[in-house]
Amino acid sequence: MKTKTKWLPLIVTPLCITLYGCNSSSSDHKSQPDVEAATPGNLNLCHELAEQFNYSETKIVSAELLPEGSNTVQSPTPAHCVVTGAMNERVSLIDNQTYKIGFEMRLPVDWNGRFYYQANGGFDGVVKQAIGQFLSVEDESQSALNKGFAVISSDAGHPSPAPTFGLDPQARLDYGYNAVATLTPMAKSLIEKAYGKQPDHSYFAGCSNGGRHTMVASARFADMYDGFLVGNPGFNLPKSAISQIYGIQQYATLVDVDPENVLGSLQSGFTQQEYALVSEKVLQQCDALDGASDGMVNDLAGCQEAFDLYRDVPSCVTERDGTCLTNAQKDVLNNIMSGPHNSITNEAIYSNFPYDAGMGTSDYYGWEFFMAMMFDSGSVSYVFSTPPTPFDGSTDMGKLEYINSFNIDTDVGRIYAIDENFTESSVDFMTPPNATDLSTLRDRGAKMMVVHGSSDSVFSPADTINWYEGLQDANGRNADEFARLYLVPGMNHCGNGPSTDRFEMLDKLVDWVEQGMQPQSIEASVRPDNAELPSNWSPTRTRPLCPYPQVATYNGTGNIEDAASFSCVAPK
Predict the structure, then answer these.
(1) What's the rounded Cα separation, in Å, for the pair 144 and 133?
(2) How many Å apart are CA 246 and CA 249, to the nearest integer?
(3) pLDDT at residue 522 tops 60
């Protein structure tokens, strides 16, 4: 059955009146009494930490002082101490592999008194440099380390290659939430040893799976952190992984798959050029909804009503040539954008996806095909299924055979299942226990800022919007007092796309937590090195990112490349 992808209902008038005002400015205002700001400190120990720091089940491998300007990352860093170590080393009784929670901490000599947990993406499995970078496209000179934070990064309790760690029950739990619970008190204790005091304020941030880590922490560990910075969160990761393999199943119906070129033959069924055609037609229907024909869709909800795949994209009457879609292609895309459903009960398994202007990019296309094949077959089979369902993933054909064997109607139950070895289901250990119950966070004065690219093809922004609407409902429509959501038009997964994907949120979060300054609109700019930018955009384009559900709307006058020419207003 052909169905048009619908958008969730919006409660417009009360939000406009009670939450933000219909024309809020970009200047922040105080929403609560002053909170004590963090006080700086100086590093007292570095090399000595390897011998003098003692913490249960923790081994410090090295502690090295790096001078200012060290090129350990792309951007020169301040003078800091790099500490590497591991916790809870053990040999699994299930797969006989050695597991431990590896970590790196970077402690600036001139410390701002704050702690930053850098939540990483993907399968984890690697201890990334602990510089406190939020988005993959972020200016490293603006990293948390460069701002003076003490930063920790970890592998979440397992080594690469992933996803075979899913055979071990404890490794699953460490990946889901327990590594954070284990590392946090250790890190604060190490900070106290190095500086003579614990951090005054602690922050948690990450994008993608790192965004999932952050949302899980906001529900499970709000007593340990004061601020949460969330990017493109995969907080329903087991469900979204099934959505990704459902997409591959759909694409496979369009072609005869070549066993020698599985990915290439799948991509021949729906090319990037054809995705770009869809983006072009979305823009034709939606670009001007915000008052400006500028290659951006700010009114994402309105766009879902304005655009119709079957009506607005030409149907092929002869051969495919990139200017049309076949009826079969439209059905496949409609199914994917509607999200997977149980064919018997029509129950949604995961969220729908919005049509947007960033669907024609290489990032969007890569997540649809290559990343879905590479990541999601293994994550569903090894990590999210109970019991694990191993398969031969050494070839693309092996991955595809597993994907096609997954029955959307019956096998989804594996992500909810438990047994005598795996006593927590993947839905339990991977997702927030109750994503809309942030009462601990709220009641202790902690804050959360969430950002999501509206052209994310792996973790749907509609899922995040639905979560935020539920959070509002659970808090008398006053959740904005402690949590704010910002959509980035055209942005793909954690950056890229035809978008203004450079913006500063960490400073805004700190000001909110420590000074009570509520964030309003946030100015974002393009990255001139972004290969996905249209040629007719100014390399200095700026836009306001508006607190949801407000929409950046052109004032009718002024430079269309300047954020000052736009205001955040309630959706129509």
Answers:
(1) 7
(2) 5
(3) yes
Phi then psi for 373, rounded to 5 degrees? -70, -45
Identity of the amino acid at 26: S
Could you please report the per-residue DSSP string of 107-121? EESEE-SEEEEEE--
331, 376, 396, 456: the catalytic one is 456
Which residues make Cβ contacts (< 8 Å) with residue 292, sequence separation at least 6? 554, 560, 566
The predicted-structure confidence for 382-418, as pLDDT tens digits, reads as follows: 999 999 999 999 999 999 999 999 999 999 999 999 9
pLDDT at 25 exceeding the cut of 50: no
Instruction: Name the residue ranges covered by the structural domains of the chain.
Output: 238-428
Which residue in the list 201, 493, 499, 521 is annotated as catalytic?
A: 493
| Rounded distance between C-alpha atoms, residue 64 and residue 35, angstroms | 35
Tokens of 182: 């284990």
Does residue 18 register a pLDDT over 60?
A: no
Separation of alpha carbons 30 and 519, rounded Å: 9
Orientation angle between helical segments 396-405 and 237-252, nearest 10 degrees: 100
- The pLDDT value given to residue 571: 84
Q: pLDDT confidence of 161, banded at 50, 70, 90?
A: confident
Residue type, position 293, single letter? S
Q: Which of 30-34, 158-162, 314-318 has the highest mean pLDDT?
A: 314-318
**Tokens standing for 50?**
């390897």
Tell me the per-residue pLDDT of 195-243, one tens digit each, with 9 for 90 and over. 999 999 999 999 999 999 999 999 999 999 999 999 999 999 999 999 9
Predicted TM-score of the model (pTM): 0.94
- Give CA–CA dist 562/427, Å, rounded: 43
Residue 456 appears among annotated catalytic residues: yes
String of DSSP letters for 199-258 = -SEEEEEEETHHHHHHHHHHHH-TTT-SEEEEES--TTHHHHHHHHHHHHHHHHTTS---
Strands 483-488 and 110-111: unpaired
Q: Which residues of 127-148 are buried (b: 16+ CB within 10 A; e: fewer)?
A: bebbbbbbbebbebebbbbbbb
Is 377 designated active site? no
| Inter-residue contact 115 to 199 (CB < 8 Å) | yes
Spot the catalytic one: 153, 202, 208, 567: 208
Alpha carbon distance 205, 37 (integer Å) = 19
CA dist., res. 227 & res. 449, Å (int):
8
Instruction: Specify the higher pLDDT residue, 55 or 136.
Output: 55
Residue 312 structure tokens: 């607005």
> Cα(400)–Cα(269) distance, rounded to whole angstroms?
15
Residue 208 annotated as catalytic = yes
